[in-house]
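[recover] target loaded
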């Protein structure tokens, strides 16, 4: 069965090239005719791994002319996912399955609501990739991808294809807990690195601020039925800060490059969920306000 990949950016290209390398059928879905022409002129997607570059001539198509889709990997940013999936709805075959690779929470529900009869598998990934040119992706950090379906605990049969492609993964019936935990880690670390203009390790100089955010985030996770995600959160945040001390967080990098952030699906989602549960989290709210002001001052979207 063909893997259709929507979003030929960093992570989408990392998946597409590894699947193609394993001999599995892959097709990219590109946004418009200009992108398709540029891709065809480039001759394929290039994966750079351990300084070795190799090109894969993966076929590509447009949403309007997409071949019937049975398995769709959605690898757009969270704020693009719903709109990107929309034109593909008429092309989904009966029984089609989607894999949603977005970080944070909120975008997955938005997509799933448009597809009440289609299985949506959610993913949470710690793999790292970036583009160092058009249609080129650099595999920057080995990691792991958790997959799961909150509505259906049985694993899909295609998981063995990921194994075949060398994509490290685990299937979990509790993917929401994984996504909430990652969201909480990102909320405790990423906004502060933007506001203090520092690497992750710079937060070691702000222990009280990190600590109070972890207390509020753990309270939120408890309140929205995710006690496992709350367990030992502060300790893990400190461990991640130490282990990634020399790195810039993904949000820091987005802001530094003048790119839109996924704020609405991270801190924004946390604050909105707290409000829905009538939970007062003043430090988290203040962090959200400070971050929005900071982004606004730099001409970046606050949603
Ligand atoms: P990216 O910006 O590199 O890629 C997204 C791609 O989607 C772009 O090529 C964009 O042109 C394309 N796109 C947007 N709208 C489209 C549309 N309507 N039709 C077709 N294509 C469309 O983003 P990324 O870094 O690969 O991130 C994707 C998701 O994965 C994000 O939620 C991110 O947080 C998450 N993630 C990324 C990494 C990483 O290392 N890059 C790691 C873990 C999680
Ligand atoms: O995932 C991250 C990111 O930068 O987005 C870490 C390293 C965990 C920091 O929150």
């Amino acid at each position: 069965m063909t893997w259709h990949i929507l979003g030929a950016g960093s992570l989408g290209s990392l998946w597409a090239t590894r699947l193609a390398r394993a001999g599995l059928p892959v097709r990219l879905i590109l946004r418009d005719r200009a992108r398709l022409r540029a891709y065809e002129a480039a001759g394929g997607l290039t994966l750079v791994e351990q300084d070795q570059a190799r090109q894969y001539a993966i076929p590509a198509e447009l949403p309007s002319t997409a071949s019937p889709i049975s398995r769709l990997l959605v690898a757009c940013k969270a704020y693009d996912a719903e709109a990107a999936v929309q034109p593909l709805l008429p092309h989904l075959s009966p029984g089609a399955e989607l894999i949603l690779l977005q970080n944070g929470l909120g975008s997955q529900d938005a997509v799933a609501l448009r597809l009440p009869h289609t299985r949506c598998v959610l993913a949470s990934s710690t793999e790292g990739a970036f583009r160092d040119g058009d249609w080129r992706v650099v595999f920057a950090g080995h990691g792991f991808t958790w997959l799961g379906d909150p509505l259906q605990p049985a694993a899909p049969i295609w998981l063995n294809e990921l194994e075949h492609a060398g994509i490290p993964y685990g299937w979990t019936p509790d993917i929401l807990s994984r996504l909430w935990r990652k969201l909480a880690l990102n909320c405790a670390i990423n906004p502060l690195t933007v506001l203090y203009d520092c690497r992750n390790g710079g937060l070691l100089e702000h222990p009280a601020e990190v600590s109070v955010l972890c207390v509020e985030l753990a309270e939120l996770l408890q309140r929205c039925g995710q006690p496992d995600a709350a367990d030992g959160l502060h300790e893990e945040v400190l461990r991640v800060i130490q282990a990634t001390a020399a790195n810039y967080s993904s949000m820091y990098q987005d802001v530094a490059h003048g790119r839109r952030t996924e704020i609405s699906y991270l801190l924004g989602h946390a604050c909105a969920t707290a409000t829905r549960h009538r939970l007062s989290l003043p430090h988290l709210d203040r962090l959200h306000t400070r971050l929005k002001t900071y982004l606004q001052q730099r001409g970046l979207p606050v949603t």
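[recover] notes: Residues 117 and 287 are 38 Å apart (CA to CA).
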